[in-house]
Amino acid sequence: MFFQVKPIKLKHTVSLRLVLILFFLIIGLAPMLIQNKIMLGTYRQNQIDARIQDIQNQCSILSNKMTRGGYLVNEPRDTLLDNEMSVKADMFNGRIVIVNKNFRIVSDTFSLSLGKLNVSEEVIRCFNGENSSKYNSDKNYAALTIPVYSNSEDKVIDGVMIVTASTEDLLTRLSSVSEKGSFLHLMIFSILAILVVLLVKLLMNPFKELQWKLKRVEEGNLDEELSSNAYTETRQITESISKTLKKLKAVDQSREEFVSNVSHELKTPITSIRVLADSLMSMDDVPVELYREFMTDISDEIDRESKIIDDLLALVRMDKTAGAELNIAQVNVNGLLELILKRLRPIAGKRNVELTFESIREVTADVDEVKLSLALNNLVENAIKYNEEGGWVRVTLDADHKFFYVKVADSGIGISEEFQEHIFERFYRVDKARSRETGGTGLGLAITKNIILMHQGAIRLSSKEGEGTTFTVRIPLTYIP
């Protein structure tokens, strides 16, 4: 026993192990990298703000000294203040320029602009009492304007101190700190990667075990135990696979039984014909009456063989087309059932079976009239054939806004519960001897179920042994391909 399963070719498949490793690494590293980025940015800004504040404080002190010493009004300039101004400019790695109230530069630590005019917006705003402090992040320097008063009492602005200070040294130190942090991150990443790989390996072990078991199934060991309860997912997967394998084995067994039944059913009429023919050939001077009787029996067996072949071909066609051959049209189901019952009343009359039809409402539906007629005919004919002498068969038609329902109930022999799940299998008979007596092939209910499924419907069986059987068919009023 084996099943040949075509492999599914998947393009660009990705290993679950790799996905989990990447996922855990991202989950572990992303917060750390984001936090590091935020912390470094905040630390950098804080250092720059602190540097600017320190420059502003020290230059404000220098401005106060200039105010007290009358730096802008006394000639010559105070050399001590000039020296202090140069020292502070060197300390800030920048430049200090003093502009008087005439917008002329009177002091420059670089000695490049003495005597020149500076009528910039910042200088004008500072003379108006509005200090400015700006930082150029592209060129990494800060520019400040600080007023220089004529005296400490009147608070009259007599000049403006323009300070430019570089932050290159500060950023160099920050870069060094960042490099050390990157080295620390690399170490953390390495440790995290090792832990993630070990964790993923541990998590994947149940799936690896399941894969190994499936490999054994693939090699033909269909009885391999596939239970894996490590995770809910693995348990659900193994349960689904086990159910699938069980169904596959049942299908394979059903196929073997079907082939055996087909062989048997086709061989039986041929054997009967052969026996009858051999009997005729072995007898001399056969009476016409006996000859006619034998030929009648041979004709009946040929008809039986033909019916079996026709039913088999019908099943094969339905299996292949899966509904593609349905000739859907609007059909009056009430009239269809009345026609079926009219054809079957002579059979019911021979067995003294009362055949009644109850139509609760008029029903028009999208169906294949020929195929549905065959399915419903099989149900009603079986209800008549497998009934008691003097029994009854009731056919009921009803509908709602979506489906119509056909119920075929009888007072017949009923079907034992142990046989009900097999009743729609091909060539399955509860009472084989009686089935052959009534001319059944064992394919009628299989054909009926296939036709109903082709109409996107369903069929349900309710029966008790000795109390009769009820088949309920449900089919949509509108067929949607």
UniProtKB/TrEMBL annotation:
SMART domains: HATPase_c, HisKA. Keywords: Kinase, Membrane, Phosphoprotein, Transferase, Transmembrane, Transmembrane helix, Two-component regulatory system. SUPFAM superfamilies: ATPase domain of HSP90 chaperone/DNA topoisomerase II/histidine kinase (SSF55874), Homodimeric domain of signal transducing histidine kinase (SSF47384). GO terms for molecular function: phosphoprotein phosphatase activity; phosphorelay sensor kinase activity. Gene3D superfamilies: 1.10.287.130, Histidine kinase-like ATPase, C-terminal domain (3.30.565.10). Pfam families: HATPase_c (PF02518), HisKA (PF00512). One of its GO terms (biological process) is cellular response to phosphate starvation. Its EC number is 2.7.13.3. It catalyses: ATP + protein L-histidine = ADP + protein N-phospho-L-histidine. GO terms for cellular component: plasma membrane. It is found in: Membrane. This is histidine kinase. It comes from Hungatella effluvii.
